[in-house]
Amino acid sequence: MYQITNLLKIPLQEFLVRGAGRIPSPCCGKSMSVIGTRDRKSRERSGEAKVYNIRRLCCDQCGRIHHELPDFLVPYKRYESECIETVLSNPSTHDVPADESTLFRWFDWFNSFVDYWANCLISILLRTKQDMIPLNLTSANSKTAPQKIGRLVGNAPQWLERIVRPIVNFNLWIHTRSAFLSEDS
After folding, report:
1. 36 Rama sector, left if φ>0, alpha if ψ -120 to 50, beta otherwise
2. CA-CA 20 to 30 A from 100: which of 59, 78, 131, 150?
3. Integer Cα distance of 82 and 70 in angstroms
């Protein structure tokens, strides 16, 4: 899916990330043009920091800017999805080198958005006319949100990637950054 090329051979590794094909704009489905790159830092499960040089894309129709993230990065998170997934799946037995406040924020983030994500995934299935929605997921009394998510994407490794990718690509991802937003926004 993604071609990752090692650029530097120094302790802080940097990788160039480029998609293999043309990507339609998540907001309007039109084509996008490359307008540059930016560095995106991330920590992997070993605790090692890596820098990924990702492309900045501009929608030819509406002019919005998007960043081309590989599947293993979650928007606005500084750890790879494998780390977050490991902690969420095994809260007491994980080996991810993150402090307690980071772990707390991951659990809070997941619990805050899990209902929304389950409904987004059901909506995407309906939009794309896929007949794979179990009937008991659309009823009001159909288990908890994490169980819904598990029924939709499974609980095999990389389940977080399977949640994030479609929601981002359908422009339904809600960002949680607000430190630089003015009161007028």
Report:
1. left
2. 150
3. 13
**3-class DSSP state for residue 152?**
helix
* Residue found under tokens 């009937």: 135
pTM here is 0.76
> What 8-state DSSP symbol labels residue 155?
S
The structure tokens listed for 88 are 């969420």
Whether the CB-CB separation of 46 and 80 falls below 8 Å is answered with: no
Strands (E), 27-147: 32-43, 49-59, 65-67
CB 28 within 8 A of CB 61: yes
